[in-house]
Amino acid sequence: MITISVVICVYTEDRWEDILSAVASVRAQSRAAHETLLVVDHNETLRERLAKEYKEAPDVRVLANAGPRGLSAGRNTGIAASGGEVIAFLDDDAVAERDWLLRFAEAYDDPQVFAVGGATRPVWASRRRPAWFPEEFDWVVGCMYRGHPTGRVRVRNVLGGNASFRRTAFEFAGGFATGIGRDGDKRPLGCEETELCIRLSRARPDAVLLIDDRAVIHHRVPAARERFRYFRTRAYAEGLSKALVARSVGADKGLESERRYTTRVLPAGVGRGLRDALLGRPGGAGRAGAIVTGVVAAAGGYVIGSVRARRAGTEFSVVDVVEGPEERRSEGAAG
To answer: Where are the beta strands (DSSP E) in the chain?
Structure first.
């Protein structure tokens, strides 16, 4: 049976209960994980607290991010230290359903499959979706959105908070690029997994990347992210992130899925919102307006990000993250 290591990147004690819940959901899987790696992003207090919490748990290891601050380097640290043939990634404020790893494992029976993602469902702090918040923009809160492929189908890229990769994918493509995605800055950047998947497909044109929406996790959405101000800020940051991806891998592939999304999915969403407004249904006009605002903000971020990257001559660092089995065993023994 294929072995699966789970990497959870953490950075703040504010999410302590969320982290414990995430780990508990992995340990309760119907298809057991080979190990769970908690990678702490430059927070020694949190690392020590987690090490104490799991000192009696042989299946959970706590590591310090060995690279620069940020999610990409944290993931690379987890990949290098892991012993599984597949590495799965789970957000620190999410919980996985019981068959999450089972669905991933089933897909890897096909040797051409190099990456598998799942479905991420929002858990709203207010216990219900804000009436104005369009499902087409659920990616703003890290979740699967209306218009994303469903079922078990091929995709250009998986979504990072609920994703897995065959170890050999990193041998061909390298690790997550530092310089893309969150790096400790308050601005909610992303898209590092998109860049990696495009790079992988170029290195291995025969590689199959899948989404299986039966591999479900539930992602907590705090109250601050239910507000329109965050929605607009996150959409702008996504534009900045897409500009970096396009600079790294080219606009053709970097914006391939986004063209369909903006020309088909979003106009249909605006139409549904306006129809609901005419029918007197709550939130219809708000959803239509939010979609338009989100598009304008993302487009503005893309333009500004492209100009900045070109002027600064932005380059990205892709490291070799795959170590040999002996090095991984040594790392594990050192704790």
So the answer is: 4-10, 35-40, 60-64, 86-90, 94-96, 113-124, 152-154, 162-166, 208-221
Number of helices (H), then strands (E), in the chain: 12, 9
Structure tokens at 52: 């104490």
pTM, full prediction: 0.89
pLDDT digits (tens, 9 = 90+) for 305-324: 888 877 766 565 666 776 64
Number of neighbours of residue 153 by Cβ within 10 angstroms: 11
β-pair partners for 164: 88, 116
User: Smallest Cα–Cα separation from 137: which of 291, 292, 283, 262?
Assistant: 291
Which tokens sit at 142? Answer: 């890290």
Short-list 70, 38, 67, CA closest to 51: 38
Cβ neighbour number for residue 224 with a 10 Å cutoff: 9
